[in-house]
Specification:
By secondary structure, the protein is α+β, with helices and mostly antiparallel strands. Helices cover about 30% and strands about 40% of the residues. The longest helix is centred in the first third of the chain and has 56 residues. The protein is rod-shaped.
């Protein structure tokens, strides 16, 4: 029994000593681990400092290559874009005042004519015959009146005979003047200088006042008419700048609004505008469509390409600029305020100066604080 008790006590002592040895070893390992972590942190800091120094001194390192762009200080314009139609004041279809048969056509289509020039002669044979007959009657009436007048002046004959001779003469004169007026109306005359665009009847055809005979154009001066929604009444005025682009003939003209309508169309809530344009080369034709741009905002300021504007996680608009120092070309982030945007250009009211240099190509692959290389091409 004594031997058994002694063995138990010995075993218990050995087990207690083993637990103490294990406990002591775990604490030591934890302490060693903590020391190693501290050393690693310290080494990482030293490594970071060394890498920073190397990046400043190493000229062979690979840097992002970017291009730069100066901030443009210019006049920013915003436009209303609508469609307009070319019209001409001197674009008419001439109809005869009296009906008749086409006797002679003196001009050809495409021919330039002068104001007052006869274009078409209608058959006036009957009128000419009537004029010849009246001339004969008028000659006799004048002779009769002259004799009656001499007798009346000598107090010979009756007053009634004198007055009848006078009335007959004057009546024939009036009838003759009327026939001559009708004869003139048998001629279709150009009211202004221009180009004969189209001749409708042929020789021998019958015309009437309801039927056009000639289309006459003068395109030296034309105008563009467009409907503008009433929303823009406060900004669309006489003298407002416009740009007219004729895609069909590859032509662009800068002009100004000549007239603003005073009537709002209830069907589409718009008013008419007119832009007069010179057309000496005759390339702009009536009814030609044009893309009309009207300036509704104009201000001088800092202008940048819209594609360079980015937005951060806070919803702020920003661009990257280049700041040069001893360490090289460093990327800086500039928070900006966008005032207006049009046609891929942005007007910036705050956040930039005219001396800033923007990062252009490569602006999407760099970040604030990066050192970059500038491509000078």
């Amino acid at each position: 029994m004594k031997k058994i008790i002694a063995l138990l006590i010995t075993a218990t002592f050995i087990i207690s000593c083993g637990d103490e040895v294990k406990k002591t070893s775990l604490d030591t390992l934890n302490i060693q681990k903590t020391n190693l972590i501290t050393q690693i942190d310290s080494l990482n800091k030293e490594l970071k400092n060394i890498e920073d120094q190397i990046s400043k001194l190493d000229t062979t390192k690979r840097l992002h290559i970017v291009t730069v762009l100066p901030v443009k200080n210019d006049v920013f314009k915003h436009f209303i874009e609508i469609q307009g139609v070319v019209k001409a004041d001197k674009n008419i279809e001439i109809s005869p005042e009296l009906g008749g048969t086409v006797k002679t056509i003196f001009v050809k289509e495409g021919q330039h004519v002068s104001a007052g020039q006869t274009l078409i002669q209608l058959d006036d044979t009957s009128i000419k015959s009537s004029i010849a007959e009246l001339n004969t009657q008028l000659t006799l009436a004048k002779t009769t009146f002259d004799r009656q007048e001499r007798l009346w002046n000598q107090k010979i004959g009756s007053e009634m005979q004198y007055l009848q001779a006078k009335a007959q003469k004057e009546g024939l004169e009036n009838n003759l003047a009327s026939l001559k007026t009708q004869a003139k109306k048998m001629k279709i005359i150009a009211p202004f200088s221009g180009i004969v665009d189209e001749i409708f009847p042929r020789i021998g055809e019958l015309t009437s006042p309801q039927m056009p005979t000639v289309r006459l154009l003068n395109l030296d001066n034309v105008y563009v008419e467009a409907d503008v929604t009433e929303t823009y009444l406060p900004v669309v005025k006489v003298g407002t700048e416009t740009v007219l682009k004729f895609n069909s003939i590859n032509k662009e003209i800068n002009s100004k609004i000549s007239q603003v309508g005073n009537y709002i169309n209830p069907d589409n809530r718009s008013f008419k505008t007119r832009i007069n344009i010179s057309n000496k080369d005759q390339t702009i034709k009536p009814n030609l469509l044009t893309n009309l741009k009207i300036v509704d905002f104009k201000e001088e300021g800092l202008i940048i390409p819209s594609e360079l504007v980015q937005k951060d996680q806070n919803g702020n608009d920003y661009v990257f600029t280049i700041k040069s120092n001893k360490g090289g070309n460093v990327i800086a982030k500039n928070i900006i305020t966008v005032k207006k945007e049009y046609n891929k250009e942005t007007l910036v009211s705050e956040g930039l100066t005219k001396n800033d240099t923007l990062v252009n190509l490569g602006s999407r692959i760099v970040k604030e604080g990066d050192i970059v290389k500038i491509n000078q091409k």
